[in-house]
Design a protein that fits this description.
This protein is of the alpha+beta class and about 270 residues long. It has one domain: NADH Oxidase (3-Layer(aba) Sandwich), CATH 3.40.109.10. A seven-stranded antiparallel β-sheet has the order 1-6-5-4-7-9-8. Bound molecules: flavin mononucleotide.
Length: about 270
């Protein structure tokens, strides 16, 4: 690629992040300002196979000291493939996207994570294997009422996970891979042409809560930016136009015995004297 083209693309990327550098659109009004009806707060169920999740988390945390959890959080890429309990899955979903309350009559959901304007423009999909009482396959979280719905079985779930995450082969051993989509209009209704930057900032809160919740439960996982969204959209049945998967986070059972194997992922740092 030519240097000029590289610089053009870098400048385009930087421009999306800069704030207050003189580019304003004073005539612009978002659909909320234009008093257009607001979109649904959550996606409607896609199937009729709905499963209630337990909300009794008494005694499931292995660590409860906040500073210990923060200090011991790290990315895990080595999974031991033991069974994950339904309560653990429920805890992870609750802590990353659970709905605690509604603001106004139906203006916004208030969740366990913050979100610009409380738009909560994300939907959570899952590839699940080896979770207590659940058939392996693809699922969708229904945050109203804290339930999941079974979407479908896939012929080779591990192959789906591998291809969907750009062949990061270690992920296939996770018990659950959370795939996050953005439902664009849910955030564009309020922020319009300014929505897309804030929409992505919000995603970080979700995965940080998954990191901390996993650490509290003695599980492990890793945020994943390297996602083949088009392929995920096709398999989960999203149109890619109004809603697209863009971020993921696998979680699985882990063991301290695998500490060295975890470090081996970064062996190149030592090898290359970085
Ligand atoms: C937005 C984001 C995207 C990431 N994408 C990947 C990824 O695709 N593959 C991967 O192995 N790790 C990925 N990571 C994990 C980082 O590599 C990891 O957080 C970093 O090396 C620091 O290690 P720590 O999490 O153990 O502190 C990602 C982390 C974040 C926050």
């Amino acid at each position: 690629m030519e240097e000029k083209e590289i610089q053009r693309l870098i400048e385009k990327g930087r421009a999306q992040i800069r704030r207050g550098y003189g580019i304003t659109y004073p005539d612009y009004k978002s659909d909320q300002e234009l008093k257009k009806p607001q979109p649904a707060l959550v996606k409607a169920p896609m199937s009729d196979q709905i499963i209630d999740l337990p909300m009794d988390f008494e005694g499931i945390e292995k660590e409860t000291d906040f500073l210990t959890i923060v200090n011991s959080r790290s990315s895990h890429r080595v999974f031991t493939e033991e069974t994950m309990s339904l309560k653990q899955l429920s805890y992870l979903l609750w802590t990353c996207q659970g709905i605690k309350d509604i603001r106004g009559k139906s203006y916004a959901t208030l969740r366990t994570v913050p979100c610009g304007g409380a738009r909560h423009q994300f939907e959570t999909y899952m590839a699940i294997q080896n979770v207590e009482s659940l058939e392996d396959g693809l699922y969708h979280y229904l945050p109203m009422g804290h339930k999941i719905e079974f979407l479908k079985k896939v012929d080779d779930l591990r192959d789906f996970i591998n291809v969907s995450l750009e062949r990061q082969i270690w992920v296939e051993r996770a018990n659950v891979v959370f795939y996050f989509s953005i439902d664009f209009y849910r955030v564009e209704w309020r922020y319009g042409i300014y929505a897309h930057n804030v929409a992505q900032i919000d995603a970080g809160h979700i995965t940080e809560n998954i990191y901390l919740a996993s650490t509290a439960l003695g599980l492990g996982g890793c945020a994943i930016g390297s996602v083949d969204g088009k392929y995920c959209d096709e398999v989960f049945g999203l149109d890619g136009e109004n809603e697209t998967i863009f971020y993921a986070h696998p979680v699985g059972t882990v063991s301290v015995k695998d500490e060295q194997k975890e470090k081996d992922f970064y062996a190149f740092v030592k090898e290359q004297g970085l």
